[in-house]
TrEMBL record, chain B:
Protein's UniProt name: Unannotated protein
TM ranges: 264-290, 322-346, 366-384, 413-432, 438-458, 495-515, 719-744, 772-795, 807-829
Primary localisation category: membrane
Organism annotation: freshwater metagenome
Record carries keyword Nucleus: no
């Protein structure tokens, strides 16, 4: 399988000496192309930190993070920004959209920022997939929470990125709407061939993934393929102890 | 939670500094101008106290003509009175004094000092005297018809040393003297920047005024009696019919100080008008900052309300903050103002206006005033936002949005519209014949209405103005446009200072353009010659009448005529007559005579304008009695009426009328026509040589002259622009503050944008364009309002002869370009701050 993103001995330390906190401690992990991977772990285990570092939003204290074969630590701010724009899609837990732009503009935001047209056929397909056709001219304040997250999913997909990172994308949604979003993400991988890495602490959400990477205390604490909510819950219980 | 709390405090500290900035700038100008004028006032008071220190009495004529604009001419007194005064018991020494217009020509041929604008250029008397005004610091006193002494600054600026030949120009023409002494006045090199050419008494009388006459007599007593007794004794020797009075030293000092004080108080009033404008504009910025601050703290305030704080407590908390800001800002402003005053004094010194030492006059009163005004303005500006903060419902704490309510209320829109409409109707009524004084009310209503309407029109106008940005800059432009429009209240408050400044500039320049146009039209019609010599002197000095005669003799010149002024009394009021030379004016200048010839104007005649004839019910053949400055009377017969009173005024007399009288009269312009077929280049060269020889005025072609006359109004404009520049600065500060607060408020949005791929330079672009759109919004509305205001003012002056309104195209374009630049400049720092937003922090803090 082709590796879309990876880390080698990724370490992130906050503070110094006695008060040093290891948010990530020697994490080496690969994320494969065309797969839906979930990162799981208890609160404070370093999930978000790991995602931020691979996505070029944060810097590692030591070790390396790569998107394709590009070592992120070699990139300056401008190149890193362009890499995020072109190769990465983002879905955050909340406040995903720019309030002054319409849904359509929000979806195309990375393309617009890069002054690119993008693949119009693809964009239409994405919009169809997330059922947003009749909401395109609305601004975020005129959309429900679920619709807003769908726009965010569409934005992450629109530029055909190498990899999409989602940090608790359903954390702020009720379970029905959350399920809907997870289905879309699943569909994006199955039907559109996308690569998604999702941070979550919800076993049900994680069960939509092909593969789960467990984190505990900033270290890799195992993996699971073809997860079900029950299996995940069991595993989480053991991690919690 | 700790991080959030810390950020709140830091945010508030930044806000405190930002709010104070608006107060500081507003009050600094207030303090600066009041310290400066107080300093100037005291400086002159000290100067004259010094100058008259040893003078115990001052003898002069009681007859004085006071014209418009502070012009005055006092009758001269016979020189032989000096001996009589010297003979009065108790008088130790008495000398004559003469002070009149005279210009020193520098070694390079250029006259020292400036015509019209700036300190005056004097000719005066320097003799050895017990109460000496002047002391000779080098060389000796001037004696005889060929010797002169100069004040130190003039000698230095003219590059003269004792022994040089110095050319001096006075009413009777130009003459060369030998420099025999350098003099200083009190303890300064030259008083207040004025230049002095000093002569002995007979020379001064003959060259500057009239032989045998002096302006006044300075007296020093022997100490045997008080100044009052001495003055009474001196008065007693004169026949009351002579109309002579004697002032004590203290009286003359006080009078001179008061005269200067009056002149300065005009300056002071002008400065205080501008500092009020600055403060008013500043109050918008203060109001804006407090509004934004209240909006950003809405959730915090709602939480306070939810846990039991009363409305009044929340309001009071904000008002307390405004008191702190007001006091802090005003104190800083006062300190800044002192710096400003130092700068202004330095500027004067650089312009070679030498003021006696004495330091700045910083009174506790000025400090108190500044701080009180600053405090009141700040608290008043903060009052509404504070009240609104108190009104926040406790429920708002649970709501996610912490933004200001977006749309303007319906009541506001109606109130604004009503005010604008009422204003327009008022103005309309005036155009249909209602009294002019209603115009001001109309304008005020329109202005107030526009400001009230601001939030309602800010959004659509910002969207229109932002369209090019969106087209040009793609998504960053789109966001800038939307950002400028997303909070119309805030945007309109931010744009208001720009609006006010721009409206004032636009109005003043529309007025100026209209006056300009009018003046060009007048001169194109009335000045029919080929060349003119113009003088900038305004009421003091001008061109020697002999210059016109000399120019007329030049080969290739058909005729040259001078037009001047003479101050007289009519019905016991000071009036200015226009003086012409009937023999030469024909073909050079046209006053629009009706059924009369210039040659009809003899020495007992007067021409009057149609307006004047109508107003005073005079006609050809009527008699007009005038009293000259030497108190001689003339009964003048009206010989004709004329139409053009724009330049010629209402009364025209011949030079012959006052020939031989003991009065001052200068020409303000000379008009020249070439002989047919003469070579204009050669003629111009000869004219120039003659003018240079006099060292007076400027030789101009017809078109140059028309442009110059029309351009004079621009000097006034320069001053007004300079001072309005201040409101531009405040406007910039206002934009900077608002943008900074907006950036602070939009951190999450900026973080998100950075995460999904917005580069730092794109972040900057977005902020910059938002700033430009805001600035342009103020400029566009300001131009519309300003031009309308200009039109109204021009309209209200229609009776003063201002008939055509002109749009200042150049200025309008310049304002647009400038406000664009203002927008770009104001965005520099906020844009930089926006690029420093920590992406992760913005994304993770909730
Ligand atoms: N800016 C920071 N400063 C100090 N410690 C931090 C910072 N960000 C995260 N941490 C710490 O790093 C650890 C991992 O955090 P995070 O990656 O957010 O965990 P998760 O997303 O799994 O809940 C936590 O212990 C957290 O307290
Ligand atoms: Mg997390």
């Amino acid at each position: 399988m082709i590796v879309a993103a990876s880390t080698t001995n990724a370490t992130k330390v906050y503070g110094k000496d006695d008060s040093a906190v290891y948010a990530l401690n020697n994490v080496s992990v690969d994320f494969y192309s065309g797969q839906f991977t979930a990162i799981m772990g208890p609160s404070g285990s370093g999930k978000s930190t790991l995602m931020h570092c691979i996505a070029g939003l944060d810097e590692l204290s030591s070790g390396s993070a790569r998107i394709d074969d590009v070592d992120l630590s070699t990139l300056k701010d401008k190149a890193l920004t362009e890499l995020r724009r072109e190769k990465i899609g983002f879905i955050f837990q909340s406040f995903n959209l720019v309030p002054t732009l319409t849904a359509d503009e929000n979806i195309r935001l990375p393309l617009l920022l890069g002054n690119e047209k993008g693949n119009e056929e693809w964009i239409q397909r994405v919009i169809n997939t997330v059922h947003l056709n009749d909401r395109l001219t609305h601004r975020p304040s005129e959309l429900s929470g679920g619709q807003q997250q769908r726009v965010a999913v569409a934005r992450a997909l629109a530029s055909e990125p190498r990899i999409i990172f989602a940090d608790e994308p359903t954390g702020n949604l009720d379970s029905t709407t959350g399920t809907e979003i997870l289905r879309f993400m699943r569909k994006a991988v199955d039907e559109l061939g996308q690569t998604i890495v999702m941070v979550t602490h919800d076993p049900v959400a994680a069960s939509y993934a092909d593969r789960i990477v467990f984190l505990a205390d900033g270290k890799i604490a195992g993996e699971m393929l073809e997860p079900t909510p029950e299996k995940v819950l069991d595993r989480m219980k053991s991690l919690g102890n | 939670m700790f991080r959030i709390a810390l950020k709140g405090i830091l945010g508030r500290k930044a806000r405190l500094v930002l709010t104070s900035l608006a107060v500081i700038i507003g009050t600094a100008f207030l303090a600066g101008t009041s310290v400066f004028t107080a300093t100037l006032d005291r400086t002159f008071n000290n100067l004259f106290e010094d100058v008259f220190k040893n003078i115990d009495g001052y003898v002069r004529s009681t007859e004085v003509i006071e014209g418009e604009f502070g012009l005055q001419e006092r009758q001269r007194i016979p020189a032989e009175l000096v001996d009589q005064v010297n003979a009065v018991p108790g008088v130790a020494d008495a000398v004559p004094d003469i002070q009149a217009f005279a210009r020193i020509i520098g070694k390079d041929g250029k006259p020292l000092g400036s015509e019209g604008a700036g300190p005056p250029t004097f000719g005066s008397v320097a003799v050895e005297f017990k109460g000496a005004l002047w002391t000779i610091s080098e060389g000796q006193w001037p004696v005889g018809a060929s010797e002169v002494a100069l004040d130190e600054a003039s000698a230095r600026n003219g590059n003269y040393v004792v022994g040089d030949t110095v050319k001096v120009v006075a009413q009777s023409g130009s003459r060369e003297f030998t420099l025999v002494g350098i003099a200083s006045y009190g303890d300064v090199r030259s008083p207040g920047g004025a230049t002095f050419a000093l002569f002995d008494v007979p020379t001064a009388a003959e060259f500057l005024g009239k032989p045998g006459f002096v302006d006044a007599i300075l007296v020093v007593g022997d100490g045997s009696r008080t100044d009052e007794e001495l003055a009474t004794d001196i008065d007693a020797i004169f026949d009351p019919a002579l109309k002579i009075e004697t002032l004590t030293g203290a009286e003359v000092t006080k009078e001179t100080q008061d005269d200067i004080g009056e002149a300065l108080s005009f300056f002071g009033i002008l400065l205080s008008i501008f500092s009020s404008i600055a403060l008013g504009v500043g109050s918008f910025v203060i109001y804006n900052v407090f509004s934004i601050s209240a909006a950003q703290r809405q959730r915090e305030n709602a939480l306070l309300r939810a846990i039991g704080a009363s409305r009044r407590q929340v309001t009071r908390a904000m008002l307390t903050e405004s008191v702190v800001v007001g006091i802090f800002g005003s104190i800083m402003g006062f300190i800044g103002g002192i710096g400003l005053a130092v700068g202004l004094s330095g500027l004067l010194r650089a312009l070679d206006i030498d003021l006696p030492q004495g330091g700045l006059v910083v009174t506790p009163g000025a400090a108190f005033n500044t701080i009180m005004v600053g405090l009141i303005v700040t608290v008043a500006s903060a009052y509404l936002p504070a009240r609104r903060a108190g009104k926040v419902p406790p429920l708002a704490a649970m709501r996610a949005t912490a933004l200001e309510t977006a749309g303007p209320g319906r009541i506001r829109a109606y109130a604004g519209l009503a005010s604008v409409l009422l204003g327009l109707v008022t103005i309309g009524a005036v155009t249909l014949g209602a009294t002019n004084s209603l115009l001001g009310v109309g304008v005020l209503l329109v202005f107030a209405g526009t400001i009230i309407l601001g939030p309602a029109i800010a959004r659509p106008v910002a969207l229109v103005l932002g369209r090019p940005a969106a087209k040009l800059r793609g998504v960053t432009g789109t966001m800038a446009r939307q950002n400028a429009a997303r909070n119309p209240k805030r945007t309109s408050r931010t744009a208001s200072p720009v609006l006010i400044g721009v409206a004032l500039v636009a109005a003043v320049s529309a007025l100026a353009a209209s006056i300009n146009g009018q003046i060009s039209d007048i001169f194109s019609e009335q000045f029919t010659g080929d060349y003119a010599v113009s003088s900038q002197a305004q009421g003091f000095g001008g061109l020697s009448p002999s210059l016109a005669t000399d120019l007329g003799k030049i080969e290739g010149v058909q005729s040259a005529t001078g037009i001047g002024t003479l101050l007289v009394k009519i019905d016991d009021k000071g009036r200015t007559l226009t003086v012409i030379t009937p023999e030469t004016i024909e073909g050079n200048y046209d006053i629009g005579l009706i059924d009369a010839k210039y040659s009809d104007l003899d020495k007992d005649g007067i021409f009057i304008s149609l307006d004047y004839a109508e107003r005073e019910e005079l006609s050809v053949g009527s008699t007009v009695n005038v009293v000259l400055a030497d108190t001689t009377e003339r009964a003048l017969t009206v010989r004709g009426l004329y139409e053009f009173n724009d330049l010629a005024g209402n009364r025209v007399v011949s030079r012959e009328m006052f020939a031989g009288a003991n009065v001052n009269s200068f020409d303000f312009g000379i008009y020249v026509t070439m002989s047919p077929g003469a070579d204009s280049k050669e003629v111009r060269a000869s004219l120039q040589a003659a003018v240079d020889d006099y060292g007076q005025g400027k030789l101009l072609s017809k078109q140059e002259y028309i442009d110059e006359q029309a351009g004079q109004i621009n000097q006034l404009l320069g001053l007004i622009y300079g001072l309005l520049f201040l409101s531009v600065i405040i406007a910039i500060v206002g934009i900077i503050i608002t943008l900074l607060l907006s950036v602070f408020e939009r951190q999450r949005e900026i973080g998100l944008l950075r995460a999904v791929g917005m580069t730092r330079s794109q972040v900057r672009t977005t902020v910059r364009w938002e700033s430009v759109i805001t600035s342009l919004l103020g400029a566009v509305l300001g131009i519309v309002l300003g031009l309308a205001l200009g039109w109204v003012v021009v309209f209200s002056l229609r009776d003063q002869g201002l008939t055509s309104f002109q749009i200042p195209v150049g200025t309008t374009i310049a304002i647009m370009v400038l406000s664009f630049i203002v927008g770009v400049l104001a965005a520099v720092y906020p844009a930089w701050r926006a690029t420093k937003v920590d992406v992760l922090e913005a994304l993770t803090t909730s």
